[in-house]
TrEMBL record:
Highest taxon listed in the record's lineage: Bacteria
Main subcellular location of this protein, as a coarse class: membrane
TM stretches of this protein: 12-30, 58-75, 129-155, 167-186, 207-224, 287-313
Protein name, per record: Lysylphosphatidylglycerol synthase domain-containing protein
Amino acid sequence: MYNTVSYKTKQFFFVLIKLSIVVAAFYFMYNKLVNNGTLDFAEFINILNKKNVFSVENIFFLIFLSLFNWFFEIFKWKILVTSIKEITFFEALQQSLGAFTASLFTPNRIGEYGAKAVYYTKNYRKKVLLLNLLSNVMQMGVTIVMGCVGFWLFISKYALDINYVKVSRYFIIIAVISTIIVIVLKKTQYKIKGFPFEKIKNFIKKLSFNLKVLAVILSFIRYGTFSFQFYFLLHLFGTPLAYYEAMIVITTYYLLVSVAPTIYLFDVVIKGSVAVYLFSFTDINDISVLCIVTLMWLLNFVIPSLFGSYFVLRFNLPKQDVSC
């Protein structure tokens, strides 16, 4: 049916889809800022003015950290894709930001997989999906490793009302289930995002060791960048926490919010609730925490989405697919 539609009709619907993505992204971002149930927008701006967050030096440094954060994400994508096809840094930038904007409405950015794949011809798309999966697993792995260390230090430092007997039971259950899953994976054709587990394992094995190590290092650098940005904002809001103490809470925070399935446009609410709870142990007031979480969302999600919208509008299918 698609092949029977005229070229002009195809182009019209293609442009309409791109416009719909951009308009929806702008609307929901605006709505989330203005009608935020946890933080009044006027109050948010007023607090930022009082804390002198809008000074030239602070704005420059915060934006620099956001650029630094995204630079390493884009660079990581470039080196991963180079294993199957040479691309420039600008192409990697287009793909990363464009796919980010297109995936805002999907839980845990799952739409990013398809959005990045359409930048390539059909013969590359399965490999691109696997590379994107690998990139996200690496970043998640770093978050889990750092978060587990932070969480262990957090429960050691603060008096949490935890029933350790029940927790131990849960860990035993998880360990048993994990063992069963490993055994099943070895004996069945289990699939992850539509790909057989064995195929994913073989694909990753074929990638060079140096490439995988470099991608992991970039994931750590990126994690260090946005976690330091969070700490810098805590400093701007006059919190008395030392860097080590702040990082215990920050790493725990990123661990908890990373495992919760959310839509990126709305996760500022969930992140705000988690952050308020964790920082309550450090006697930091709720409003300051909510302002910091909202600023992190603006700097690392909203601003990149605005640039990504431009690339969504400029997007064209690869020549091979257009000719089809």
